[in-house]
Structure formats: structure tokens, C-alpha cells
Amino acid sequence: MNTASTQPTITLALSKGRIFDETLPLLKAAGIEVLDDPETTRKLILATNQPHVRVLLVRATDVPTYVALGGADIGVTGKDTLIESGSDGLYQPLDLKIAKCRMSVAVREGFDYQAAVKQGARLTVATKFVQIARDFFAGKGVHVDIIKLYGSMELAPLTGLADAIVDVVSTGATLKANHLVEVEFIMDISSRLVVNQAALKLKHDLLRPILIAFENAVR
Ligand code: ATP
Ligand code: PRP
Predict the structure, then answer these.
(1) Which of 47, 90, 173, 181 has the fewest C-beta atoms lying within 10 Å of its C-beta?
(2) 114-123 tens-digit pLDDT
(3) 78 and 155 in one domain?
(4) What is the share, in percent, of the chain residues with pLDDT greater than 70?
(5) Is the Cβ–Cβ distance between 9 and 52 less than 8 Å?
(6) Any idea what the CATH number is for the domain that residue 185 is in?
(7) 46 neighbors 36 (Cβ within 8 angstroms)
(8) Is the CB of residue 151 below 6 angstroms from any atom belonging to ligand 2?
(9) What's the 19 CA to ligand 1 centre distance in angstroms?
């Protein structure tokens, strides 16, 4: 009888780039090594040295969807992405403290943001983070028209598309290179481990050692 096919598997959803790279040491701490390099392989399902653990390569913004709907059991995703996608159906046991950055408001150098906000004028804000931007400006009582973009937000104030952007900032180099300045801090961002709620119960014995190893590695 072939028992391999009935063996439960843990599927981990990761995005290529910084999340994958910064999750690798945590996986290593759990004794898991990914056998392919996501930057060179065309495969989207990567095997690991643990026969019952595999990695799915998905877009960063798709990680919550895969985990919430059971396409993956666990995943790693930014707090920004979690807020934007809503976290229904997801258990969030751990702040992994990786991919750290902050969410900020930035404007063109020389734009008088304080005056624009004080006068109560409507502000046009371009962002990929619509929910975060809406909540932040609503909290300040500032009326905003939001323009949804999918990247290169820095261009919006430079081209007259928007007065301000809401984007993640880490070193500040991107803002500086584009003559933009940070005018408001919204929140600190880091990446979270998210777990499918059904998997947490049904695959508890397989998941528990991974969660414990991640937790110890973060500490
Ligand atoms: P998608 O490809 O789906 O548009 P993305 O481009 O935001 O997503 P990444 O650039 O890999 O995907 O970012 C993943 C996460 O890393 C973000 O959700 C955010 O939490 C964090 N992040 C983004 N930019 C930085 C940065 N410059 N420094 C540190 N962390 C960052
Ligand atoms: C992110 C973000 C900013 C930049 C900020 O882009 O959209 O442009 O990082 O980082 P900094 O403050 O260190 O310059 P990223 O590098 O992820 O490129 P992407 O938007 O194309 O994913």
C-alpha cells in the first residue's frame, strides 16, 4: 500500500524577494531547507528537505487569500497586506519581525502639507494601501479623494496626479531620490505568520513544531 499519498502535508505560502529571503533563517531554525532557488527556478511549488513540507510561491498580496481559503496552511505576509485584504479566516499567532518598514504619508518637497490639511481642503492621495489611507485620514478628520495605484506611487505627486502618497518607507532612499518628503507616520509594519484556522486544528501535530521553532527564532 502507498502510504505517502495519505501523509498530511504542510503547505507554506511565501512571496519571492524580501519575504522569502527573510523567512529562510526562520525555516532553517525549524529544520526546513527549501531545495530550489525561487530566483532561478520556474517552479511555483518548491520541495523542502522535509518530505511533508512544501512552499508555494505566490504574489505578496495573494498570501492571505491562499491561507484563508486553504490553498496553503500557513503563510508569511506584511501587516499592510493583511489590513488591506482583511484577515477573516486567518489565525495570526506571531509577529515575525521581518520585512520591517513603516507606513507614511509623503508629499513633494515644497508642498505645504500642514497648510493643506489645516485649511480643510480635500487632499488627493495616491496609494496601493486604500484601507490604511482611508482609516488614517478619517481619524484625522481630513477629507481625501483616493486614487488606487499598484506601484511606483512616488510618481503621483511629481506628475500632479495627487497631492500626497501613502506608501511604505524603510531607508527613505526612494523618497529622497524622487524629491519627496515624509510628513506623517501612520504605523510600523512587519511581517506576520498567518495560519488557516482549520489547518490549525486538523494539522496541529505537524504545525506545532514549526510554530514553536519560529517563535524561538524570533525571540
Ligand atoms: P505585490 O508584488 O503583490 O505587489 P509587494 O511588491 O508589496 O507585493 P514586496 O515588495 O515583496 O511585495 O513586499 C512584501 C512586504 O514587505 C510588504 O507587504 C511590506 O510589508 C514589506 N516591505 C515593502 N517594502 C519594504 C521595504 N522597502 N523594506 C522593508 N520591508 C518592506
Ligand atoms: C518599496 C516601497 C518603496 C520602497 C521604500 O518598494 O514601495 O518604493 O520600498 O524603501 P526605501 O525607503 O528603503 O527606499 P520595493 O523596493 O518593494 O519595490 P516594489 O514597490 O516594486 O515592490
Answers:
(1) 173
(2) 999 987 789 9
(3) no
(4) 97
(5) yes
(6) 3.40.190.10
(7) yes
(8) yes
(9) 8
The residue type of 73 is D
Assess whether 95 and 105 both reside in one domain: no
Does some domain include residue 5? no
Residue nearest to atom 20 of ligand 1 (CA): 78
Ligand nearest to the CA of 106: 2
Burial label for 203, CB within 10 Å (0-12, 13-18, 19+), is: buried
Confidence at residue 6, expressed as pLDDT on a 0 to 100 scale: 60
From 15, 18, 80, the mutation candidate for ligand 1 (largest count of ligand atoms within 8 A of CB) is 18
CA atoms of 159 and 152, how far apart (whole Å):
12
Q: Is the C-beta atom of 12 inside 6 A of ligand 1?
A: no
In whole angstroms, what is the distance from residue 165 CA to residue 144 CA? Answer: 11
pLDDT band at residue 93, thresholds of 50, 70 and 90? confident
CA distance 162 to 5: 54
Residue with CA at minimum distance from ligand 2 atom 21: 151
- Domain range enclosing 153: 101-189
- Rounded to the nearest angstrom, the distance between the alpha carbon of 142 and the centre of ligand 2 is 26
57 close to 38: Cβ distance less than 8 angstroms = yes
Whether residues 211 and 170 fall in one domain: no
Q: 157-168 pLDDT, tens per residue?
A: 999 999 999 999
